[in-house]
Write a structure and sequence with these properties.
alpha/beta; nine-stranded mixed β-sheet
């Protein structure tokens, strides 16, 4: 059994993938790396195999979505911990060892989620609580300020000074550090979510089944490029809406 595995989903990735894999390669622990390739016609994965010997490519038949692509790694996992990571994320080489050390001393934690920073060092303030209608509205209309801004700050804990690890209800899929046995027990992500809310659903299943806590650790930091291109198109916005509807149909609508 290895200590850590990681899976990155490829979909028209650029040079950012090289930076992400370099971070893993330079980490202070050995990592079994898998690339779930949603663009098999693209030569990127072959290039990565040449640049980073030892990685395993899992070619998909096409763009099967984020959750399904991550689930392709399930039959191969023999690690104690598993990292789900976007190809546009980078981090300090010592981070993975620190996260493993923290999980080793806190066996009740199922998922460790880090502080996510922009490239300029500012915080992205991603959701930390369970999604609801008013929290989703806050994301759409926070630019208007007022109650929408207050709701958004509450949703992301931006209105709190968090300087120590705390339990939360949501772990972002851009960098999700999970116990492998928990991920296997859940059979990975719910494949009904093509993109968006698959991490919300996974987080909720972990807590509902009492498989352990989800802990946000503000001293564990990653940088996320986060261009948000998918939500800027009509197709991307509709895909986001469909995922929200699927989530509420599964778990019930909460205001």
């Amino acid at each position: 059994m290895s200590i850590l595995s990681s899976c990155l989903v490829l979909y028209h990735c650029g040079d950012e993938l090289t930076h992400a894999l370099r971070c893993i390669q330079n980490a202070d622990v050995e990592v079994d790396v898998y690339l779930a390739d949603n663009t098999p016609e693209d030569p990127t994965s072959e290039k990565m195999q040449w640049l980073f010997p030892g990685i395993t490519v899992l070619p998909q038949k096409g763009n099967v979505g984020f959750g399904r692509a991550n689930n392709a790694v399930l039959p191969y996992l023999k690690s104690k911990y598993h990292l789900i990571m976007n190809p546009d994320v980078t981090f300090d080489p010592a981070l993975l060892g620190r996260m493993i050390g923290y999980m080793e001393t806190h066996p009740n934690i199922a998922v460790l989620t880090p502080r996510v920073l922009n490239e300029d060092g500012s915080e992205q303030f991603l959701p930390k609580k369970r999604i609801s209608v008013h929290y989703l509205l806050s994301g759409l209309f926070e630019g208007f300020g007022g109650i929408f801004r207050r709701w958004r700050n509450e949703f992301t804990l931006a209105d709190m000074e968090v300087n120590h690890p705390i339990p939360v209800e949501f772990a972002t899929g851009c960098f999700l550090f999970i116990r492998t046995d928990v991920f296997l027990h859940l059979n990975g992500f719910d494949p009904r979510f093509f993109l968006y809310q698959e991490d919300s659903d996974l987080s909720r299943r972990i807590l509902e089944e009492k498989l352990g806590s989800i802990v946000y650790h503000p001293e564990m930091k990653v940088t996320h490029r986060w261009a948000r291109e998918n939500t800027r198109t009509f197709k991307g916005r509709m895909r986001q809406i469909r995922s929200v509807i699927k989530y509420f149909l599964k778990w019930g609508v909460t205001w």
